[in-house]
Specification:
Blueprint: E1 2-4, E2 20-22, E3 43-45, E4 53-57, E5 62-67, E6 69-71
Antiparallel strand pairs: 1-5, 2-4, 3-6, 4-5
Length: 75
């Protein structure tokens, strides 16, 4: 998912920055929109020893958030 949170705008001294790579523990301190899968029956969150999350925040407040989700087959 990707969205903009203007509260997270910052100045970067590095041009063409790849953003701040944040730990998955930070997700509890951010607003994250709800996810909806049309026609989804059920699913499970992919889990490992730690949450399988990628979180980047860019200087204009853009957030890129990836959390592994596995769709459970019905067959």
């Amino acid at each position: 998912m990707q969205w903009v949170d203007f509260r997270l705008i910052y100045d970067s001294i590095v041009k063409d920055s790849i953003g701040l790579q944040l730990d998955g523990n930070v997700k509890d301190k951010l607003w994250i929109p709800n996810m909806y899968f049309p026609h989804g029956k059920r699913g499970i969150m992919h889990s490992m020893v730690r949450d399988n999350i990628q979180l980047q925040v860019f200087e204009k407040g853009t957030i890129k958030y990836s959390h592994r989700y596995v769709k459970e087959s019905l067959g």
